[in-house]
Amino acid sequence: METPPKVDFKDLYSDYLSGDHNLFLSKMEEEYLYWNKFKYKVKGDQVYGKDVMRAWGLVQLDRKTKSQTLKIGSYQFRYWATNKIQERCYHLNGLISRLNMPQDDFVKLMHKRFKLEAISSSQIEGASTTTEEAISMIDKAKKPKDDSEQMILNNFHAYQFIVDNQQRELDDSFLMDIQEILVKNTKSSDKVQIREKQVYVTDNIKSEAVHIPPEASELRILLDDLYTFIKEDNPFIHPIVKSAILHFMIGYIHPFLDGNGRTARTLLYWYLFKKGYRIMHLLSVTEVIKKARSKYDKSFIECELDHNDLTYFINYSLEILEKAFEDLIQYNEKKKNERDEMDRMYAKISRQSQRLKAMGSTALNERQINLLSYLYVKPDKWLSVQEIAEVHHTERQTARKDVNLLLKQGFLLEDKHGRNVVVKLNNKAFIESWLAQA
Fold first, then answer.
1. Of 389, 411, 415, nearest to 400 (Cα)?
2. Per residue in 381-407, pLDDT tens?
3. Cβ atoms of 119 and 131 closer than 8 Å
4. Which CATH architecture has domain 364-435?
5. CA torsion 348→350→355→359, rounded to 10°?
């Protein structure tokens, strides 16, 4: 990535203070482009395209003038809570207020999201296990068969840990507790302590260093300053913005020999839990990151190459949070529509069952009606008899009896997946035909 050119501000102050460039600077504030995009964007401008370097200097002076400074150890960072960032924080609060979910659904979805987050966070770091295999391992409490599965299980346990410890303060003890969970029983299990030697963050494709973290001798003061920054609320920084800074700083400082990315993403969740963002339980932020990993890496590099300007990474973090929230809202609306359709189908099947019973047919029981309603909404879903028994809180023998009657009447199809007997809906048309019987 191209490093931004150096700017000599001494010839720009009077031009900047004239106010003649306010409209241009306002537009550049909103877009907040890195140099390699900025130069092409401005090149076609009739006014500013004539001297791109001067235009970049004006933008840099505007950013420098309006940014807050953050000093961590001997390193100086800056960030600007631009109008766009404030608008995005407001938008995120609005998305949160739109979510209205029953408690039972909240708990179920929370466990599902924790699994997806654990899997995605591990896959980003190189875990090769498929999502389906990983979910099966967690759900069935299987012993991990390799480092990839162990990494995923550790991530899952780490998310459970921070939910139970969201009121703790960030310090060495808490950081080590998280790290110990994340690397347990892996090839990195001996790398729990704060590193005592230099490390290099490399590009997995090009095998070249993309970040050289601070020397090990600097870690003590860097971590202490970071802990103080996270603990203090004066000056006020919006929690979503502060969580992004924390995320970046763990990656930048790189306190451990391994697992820093996973630790950073875990702490992102912890901080927002701590600040009352309970809805974070339902997000899978890393799932969004995984879909565009290059943007994630690039936002780190842009910050470092442009005088440690954290605004790039803050903008990126808000973007992925917005996408994660929007995905959640779509999921929630989809589930609500499914519940509504299941309720309507339950009522129809129940009425028809009672009507046919009055005519001498065998009536369906409540469990069977529930099962048919569910499978009508998910016609491609295969369920084992054991799963049906667990959902209905009944014995397997009872579930088998329910299924046998539905198979006999033609509602279901049966198959064998491995050692499990599984069933699915015959087809929607069969139920609709049955409902239409006079």
1. 389
2. 999 999 999 989 999 999 999 999 999
3. yes
4. Orthogonal Bundle (1.10)
5. 130
- What pLDDT is recorded for position 208? 62
SS3 278: helix
Query: How much of the chain is helix, strand and coil, in % rounded to 5?
Result: 65, 5, 30
For residues 287 and 52, what is the distance between their CA atoms, to the nearest angstrom?
38
What is the Cα–Cα distance from 199 to 16, expressed in whole angstroms? 42
Residue-wise pLDDT tens digits, 351-388 = 999 998 888 888 899 999 999 999 999 999 999 999 99
Query: What's the per-residue H, E or C state across 320-363?
Result: HHHHHHHHHHHHHHHHHHHHHHHHHHHHHHHHHHHHHHHCCCCC
Under CATH, which architecture does the 70-332 domain have? Orthogonal Bundle (1.10)
Which of 239, 251, 115, 263 minimizes the C-alpha distance to 188?
263
Residues in the chain: 438
CATH 1.10.10.10 domain extents, the chain: 364-435
